[in-house]
Fold DER reductase.
Amino acid sequence: MEPHLSFGGRRALVTGAGKGIGRAVAVALSRAGARVTALSRTAADLESLTRECPGIETICLDLADWEAVEAAVGAAGPFELLVNNAAVAELQSFLEVTRSALQRSLDVNFGAVLHVSQIVARQMIAQGLPGAIVNVSSQASKRALRDHAVYCSTKSALDMLSKVMAMELGPHKIRVNTVNPTVVMTDMGRINWSDPQKSAAMINRIPLGKFAEVDDVVNSILFLLSDKSAMTTGSSLMIDGGFLVS
């Protein structure tokens, strides 16, 4: 994707940046002039990312480890831009949800967003920096999906957290929004939705008749990070092809 917005000299942190949407956002921001720090728990992914885009700095850790996150993110900042992309999807039917799946999902999909955003926002405020935070949510925050009890619930909680963040951080000139995609054709998305029978049931509920591509999400994130959206905060940008209107 060719960058259409400039982030020259601005410092950005992207979590879950080893693969998929997070990786694409990190690369796009770097190519648009930002100084990017990419965070992932998988060292091999970060190594390949720096080979692809040598200017990107990296942090390798598990976001569930609050002490490690506090130290590493605190030392790497301050940042003006933050994309909370890291997430896990523990798919189990409601009656089969396990405590471990629930805890892991809460730790990453909700707790890590809160914690990383606290660290970054406190530094923005201390430095007097205006900023923008984009939390990657999902259409699953708005609509019940079978076997997604924990995922839907944590993404719904993320949407409300983002609204409260927008309310409290707005006076400090920090904007907070979410993007809420449908199924996205990352490498993993193509694997999980390659079965025509499985994909047809979902696509038939999308008026545009297709899943999202990675660039659809990346472009929306870049817009919300940029000054082009200077009056937008506390919003959820649906990237769902109309799924929620059907």
Remarks:
- The chain has one domain: 11-184+213-239.
- The beta strands are 11-15, 35-40, 57-60, 81-84, 131-136, 174-181, 236-239.
- The mean pLDDT is 95.
